[in-house]
């Protein structure tokens, strides 16, 4: 399989499209947690209950078509190979916990991969919508329509005073987590993130790494999401998030301009050194890859690097993950073999860009 064929089959829609403020915002996500009233929550549910829920989704929603989204297919985790589940995690389509607890869990996935509905994770249902760029409200609108679609077939666990009931108390209320993935290299370079993160936390939001809770902010990618789900409407939560994100966008652009004016030669040197590493390395680890990709993406956004797609960061941050590398290679790889294969894939991808492939 050629790299182009692999990319065509591997890239989700949000990775290959540009959305609003895409120079800084890679993606927007809205996730709704729901439970079905007649079943015990996953922490107490029996295998029979898990199986009944999975069967319900297979019979009622699999191979159905939803307006503006398309058709859905149910992926049963028990039928997937470990590397396939890892790829789904790396593409942000399922959570690591869904991949691990796979005996009676599944994912109802839209063909365009903008929507994934996880079944039997921490809650019975996790509706997730992913959009490119800053499109929180758009993702919320689609998630709401999907929520109504599912509720036509099931009764949700709901309390008039508390809202939607969830396994984790921190999700009770709206059951909604809205998040935005941002590339903030200038704020990180100027050490301003050390001051910004505590300020964001005081506003009821949280800053995490690329794969959510407990993950590292590799490649200067930060996930900003709400912490409060109770006492506010979905729309108010989205507005609060957008307000902070728009301020971060303005601060990042200001920081980029300041660094460019104060230290242009040093910045250019850093960016081109990183581009040279990516273009010529024969062995490269994940962390170095993330750092270099962040530098190159900054160079593209500032107009210092020409003829390279802005989506290169989105693509290669995913394609160079362990699961993708093994899927592309068609075999299991040791860590050293992954580092070699990662370097080769990056060189090949950059050559395609230069050659206009």
TrEMBL record:
- Catalyzed chemical reaction(s): L-arginyl-[protein] + ATP = N(omega)-phospho-L-arginyl-[protein] + ADP + H(+)
Q: Which gene encodes it?
A: mcsB
Mention one GO molecular function.
protein arginine kinase activity
Keyword Transferase among UniProt keywords: yes
Indicate whether Zinc-finger appears among the record's keywords: no
- Which SUPFAM superfamilies does the entry mention? Glutamine synthetase/guanido kinase (SSF55931)
Q: Which family does it belong to?
A: Belongs to the ATP:guanido phosphotransferase family.
| Entry EC number(s) | 2.7.14.1
Q: What class of enzyme is it?
A: transferase
Source species, domain of life: Bacteria
- Motif interval(s): RDXXRA motif of the pArg binding pocket involved in allosteric regulation: 338-343
Q: Which UniProt keywords apply?
A: Allosteric enzyme, ATP-binding, Kinase, Nucleotide-binding, Transferase
How is this protein activated or inhibited?
Appears to be allosterically activated by the binding of pArg-containing polypeptides to the pArg-binding pocket localized in the C-terminal domain of McsB.
Which PANTHER family does its entry note? Answer: ARGININE KINASE 1-RELATED, ARGININE OR CREATINE KINASE
**What is the species of this protein?**
Metabacillus sediminis
Report what the protein is called: Protein-arginine kinase
Ranges for the Phosphagen kinase C-terminal domain? 24-255
State the protein's purpose. Answer: Catalyzes the specific phosphorylation of arginine residues in a large number of proteins. Is part of the bacterial stress response system. Protein arginine phosphorylation has a physiologically important role and is involved in the regulation of many critical cellular processes, such as protein homeostasis, motility, competence, and stringent and stress responses, by regulating gene expression and protein activity.
What residues does ATP bind to? Answer: 27-31, 92, 126, 177-181, 208-213
PROSITE patterns, per the entry: PHOSPHAGEN_KINASE, PHOSPHAGEN_KINASE_C
């Amino acid at each position: 399989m050629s790299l182009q064929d692999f990319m065509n089959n591997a890239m989700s829609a949000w990775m290959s499209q540009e959305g609003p403020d895409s120079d800084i915002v890679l993606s927007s996500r809205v996730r709704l947690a729901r439970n079905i009233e007649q079943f015990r929550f996953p922490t107490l549910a029996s295998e029979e209950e898990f199986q009944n829920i999975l069967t319900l989704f297979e019979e009622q929603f699999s191979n159905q078509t939803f307006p503006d989204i398309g058709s859905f297919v149910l992926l049963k985790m028990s039928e997937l190979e470990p590397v396939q589940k890892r790829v789904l995690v790396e593409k942000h389509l399922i959570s690591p916990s869904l991949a691990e607890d796979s005996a009676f869990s599944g994912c109802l996935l839209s063909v365009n991969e903008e929507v994934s509905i996880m079944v039997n994770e921490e809650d019975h249902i996790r509706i997730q919508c992913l959009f490119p760029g800053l499109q929180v409200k758009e993702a919320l609108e689609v998630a709401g329509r999907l929520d109504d679609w599912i509720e036509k077939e099931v009764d949700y666990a709901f309390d008039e005073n508390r809202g939607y009931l969830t396994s984790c108390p921190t999700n009770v209320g709206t059951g909604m987590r809205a998040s935005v993935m941002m590339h903030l290299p200038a704020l990180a370079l100027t050490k301003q993130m050390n001051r910004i993160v505590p300020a964001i936390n005081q506003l009821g939001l949280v800053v995490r790494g690329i794969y959510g809770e407990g993950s590292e902010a590799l490649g200067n990618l930060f996930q900003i999401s709400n912490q409060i789900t109770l006492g506010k409407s979905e729309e108010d939560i989205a507005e609060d998030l957008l307000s902070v994100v728009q301020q971060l966008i303005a601060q990042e652009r200001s920081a980029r301009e300041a660094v460019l004016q104060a230290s242009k030669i040093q910045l250019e040197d850093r960016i081109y050194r990183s581009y040279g590493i990516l273009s010529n390395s024969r062995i490269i680890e994940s962390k170095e890859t993330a750092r270099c990709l962040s530098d190159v993406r900054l160079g593209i956004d500032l107009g210092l690097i020409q003829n390279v797609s802005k989506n290169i960061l989105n693509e290669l941050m995913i394609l160079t993950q362990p699961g993708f590398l093994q899927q592309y290679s068609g075999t299991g790889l040791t860590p050293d073999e992954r580092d070699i294969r990662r370097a080769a894939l990056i060189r090949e991808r950059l050559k395609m860009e230069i050659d206009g492939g």
